[in-house]
Amino acid sequence: MSALHIKHLFGLRGVSQSDIRTILDTAMDFRQVLERPVKKVPSLRGVTVVNLFFENSTRTRTSFELAEKRLSADTINFTSSNSSVKKGETLLDTLRNIEAMKIDLVVVRHKGTGVPQFLADNSQAIIVNAGDGAHEHPTQALLDMLTIEQHLGSLKNKRITIIGDIRHSRVARSNLWGLTTMGAQVTLCAPSTLTPRNREFFNGVHFEQDVRKAVHEADAVIALRLQKERMDDSLLPSMREYRNFFGITREVLEQASPSALIMHPGPINRGVELDSEMADSDQSVILEQVTNGVAVRMAVLFLLSGGRASE
Asked: How far is 34 from 225, CA to CA, in rounded Å?
């Protein structure tokens, strides 16, 4: 029996504080494994994981693949560009053919919102969401939370500001659900055109359009990538104007806590959402986020596969 109350990881909305705590604590244990000379453990030996990626990805996919290898799982990589999907095969047929190979767990990334839930409804495999549409990206939020805890301790009452393309960001959604569940105070800051239309859906968070007010006394500032592939040209006058009003610069960060963490899910549009000076500063924990991503994904795969937190 798993140490978690959830069978799959679709997102963080509705996931209990105890489950999030278990994942973060287990990830911290695996973080220590990554510091060893031998970074491999036999925890998922005999478990077969399929990485089912229908969208381009570098960090997330590589991180999941490395997490699986560190756990000694058998890994199968699937990309839609080299598959029968190009020949007209449906998502359900793709899943059934893969499942016929007797796999145990599917990590899926897809542009369609709700695809992980659809796969779980039509499969016996454990499903992990690696990003679906503009819905959620739960492991990114978990690695963000782990990084903040490593530097600031408990998330309770910490002031976290998320700035950028909130409207299209699955990272922002998973972060706000996870952070508020753990007791953090979350502020979302974006141009009106990149603010979600259904703001009432985001209970317990504060919206602010003045970037300097948004970061005031913030303990951590998360800059989001402008997802130009998901927006039309009318949403922003120009990249330069966005940078002038919402870019994270040294002057903007002066309004935050002196020790405020600078974070970004990557890839960074340097000089747009985040100045290079700040991305490479001592306050930046962006590369730590990448390392923590492997530990978090190890924890999620391990726990959902039936591992106990005490192992």
From this structure: 28
